[in-house]
Amino acid sequence: MIDILIKNLPIIVVLCPLMTSLLVVLIPNIFFSWVLTTLSTFLTFLFSILLYQEIQIHSHISYALGKWMPPIGIEYIIDKVAIIPVIIISGISFIATIFAYKIMPEEIEKKSISKVYSLWLLAIAGLLGLVTTGDAFNLFVFLEISSLASVALVAMGAHKDKQALVAAYNYLIIGAVGATLYVIGVGLLYGITGTLNMADLTNRISDLNNNRALIAGFGFMIIGIMVKAAVFPLHIWLPRAYAYAPSAVSVLLAATATKASLYILARILFSIFENSENLINNTLLFVILPLSLLAMFAGTIMAIYEKDIKRLLAHSSVAQIGYITLAFAIGTKASIAAGFIHMFNHAIIKGGLFIAITSIGFYIKKRITINNLSGLGREMPITFFCFVICSLSLAGLPLTAGFISKLYLIKASISSDDIWIAILILISSALSVVYLWKIIEVMWMRDGRKIVIKENPTIYISLIIITFLNIYFGLDASLVVNGSFEAADKLIGDLK
């Protein structure tokens, strides 16, 4: 029995939330639908841990769907690269589901709660399928599953603010453009190679250097995924989506959705097109690098002048995505590892910040703006403390997970003789303190309401867990660092 489970883990980790989503929608009771969703996300996380253990033994697990063997059939692949986003998505999903118990009924019509949890699980399944599939078209299918479910989740915020419908519409249209561009690129590659299997694509592309259809296909795929990953300046859907989505949905999307797309970006650049060295180098140097540097500063500056806290954190995410793509753009083994380190750490940082801020919104019953936070730090000491820790982590202060990210990114920049990039990283990180301090100062130092708020354990338990992770991985980063370097080695091997 155990052997059968282990053998089928790559598909089970996707099917667990997918099949549960079909059951949850049939349960009218809010509590039981949440229990089933929590159980599903917990099991998914448990399966991802088992997959991680298997990867340490076998390094690479391939699962052929049905009896059709690759490259003809659809293949699911778990290796030392894919396991990172799998752990991120499943772990954050479980934490966010715990957080959703008390928050969700406050922001969504009670009759729609079961539908929301069904969409919630569907989005998770789509993201997990996205990072585990070894088929380029199947990737598109999962991309659309996760995107459409996410759009519907964002729209559910209309019960509290009608602006959520506008945000969902923008997300839908822009996401559809990104998906269309990606699938056009896949179609072009299929036309010249006759295969959709990613590993097979890599082999066949090696003989097609300077082929115009190949270059066009690559361009369409890259731009499409950059839209989905909210890479600057293709990020315009992100601030509204994060700001007007229900609070728990904001947590889930901020910590997982863009990370899955960034993983796909890395796969395309360093795996599928690994043999098109000139094409990749030019893309990294003349496209990804300048856009990443712009994102670091544009996102930070927009965050400094933003009053709405959820939009502020969304702009901050644009900057942090810039750090990850910058790491990819440098293109060395050390920098790619640094990108994966920050991908993991940013998930727990941004997840913690969104949980803390939206926990405050649960009590004040208003849009979370700078002025509405006055004095709440003293009234909500646990939430405030966790917010400060996660803020310090985002700024990259020592003894936090964020420090490890920035440290390895700076080291990678210096080792590649790009000292000027290291200086820009330090400047951008220093600027992030400005908008974070703005929030902390208002929460603690300004006079607020003369009321006593009793923090609800069902809310702050998720916050405490994710805050602990920010401290733990700042003190002992060996697990994340070693896993990220193994992923980088798998992606580019001995090439650089």
Characteristic key phrases:
496 residues, mainly alpha, two-stranded antiparallel ribbon
Quickly describe the structure.
By secondary structure, the protein is mainly α. Helix content is 77%, strand content 2%.
**What coarse outline follows from CA principal-axis ratios?**
globular
> What is the count of DSSP helices, taking H or I runs of 4+ residues?
20
Return residue spans where pLDDT drops below 50 for at least 5 consecutive residues. Answer: none
* Order of adjacent strands in the largest pleated sheet: 1-2
Count every beta strand, where a strand is a DSSP E run of 2 or more residues. Answer: 2
Helix percentage: over 70%
Distance between the termini: 43 Å
Report Rg: 21 Å
- Major sheet summary line: 2 strands, antiparallel
Q: SSE order, as H and E?
A: HHHEEHHHHHHHHHHHHHHHHH
What structural category arises from helix and sheet content? mainly alpha
Assess the beta-strand content as a share of residues.
Answer: under 5%
Descriptive account of the structure:
The chain is mainly α and about 500 residues long. It has a domain at about 285-495. It has 20 helices and two strands. Helix 10 (about 240-245) packs across helix 13 and helix 12 packs antiparallel against helix 13. The longest helix has about 30 residues, at about 335-365. The model has no long low-confidence stretch (mean pLDDT about 85).
